[in-house]
Amino acid sequence: MPPQSRIEHQIGDVDQEVHDDHQSGEEQYHVLHDDHVSLGQRLIGKAAEAWLGQARFRRDAALTGGEVDARRRLSADPNDIGARLDLATALAARGAYREALEGLLALVRGADRQAAERARAAMLDVFRVLGDEHELTQQYRSLLATSLW
After folding, report:
1. Structural domain of 18
2. DSSP assignments along 21-62, one per residue
3. Per-residue pLDDT band at 99 (split at 50, 70, 90)
4. What one-character DSSP code corresponds to residue 78?
5. pTM of the predicted model, to two decimals?
6. Dihedral through CA 38, CA 43, CA 46, CA 51, nearest 10?
7. 79 or 10, which is more confident?
8. Residue 15 and residue 30: Cα distance in Å, rounded?
9. How far apart, in whole angstroms, are the C-alpha atoms of residue 3 and residue 33?
């Protein structure tokens, strides 16, 4: 092959590599961009879910008379399961999640099947509000799992 043809051939090879690298870079950009958008949507979704969960706790606490009423009912009857569930909801509504989870876990472990199921569902609601990475979620999710077996 004459020198000029070799040089033209090498230039063509370099042009093809640059083109391939550019296409690969564009594809990587789009993949990263799509991942970023997806992550953003998931984060917004989780924040909205947490906010809605907290709003539901506040609504439910208001509908059942709140923390003061639940404590009054419990002082009159310490075995009032409804009052114990209402107290846990009111505690979660004001952000006292550890206390709420303790009360709910006690119900999961010792209440009748229907109340235990309501308490379990309320614990899952608290976990959603707190998020998967929160220390209380990790601690009480493990305790809940142990209680269910």
Report:
1. 3-148
2. HHHHHHHHHHHHHHHHHHHHHHHHHHHHHHHHHHHHHHHHHH
3. very high
4. T
5. 0.68
6. -140
7. 79
8. 23
9. 44
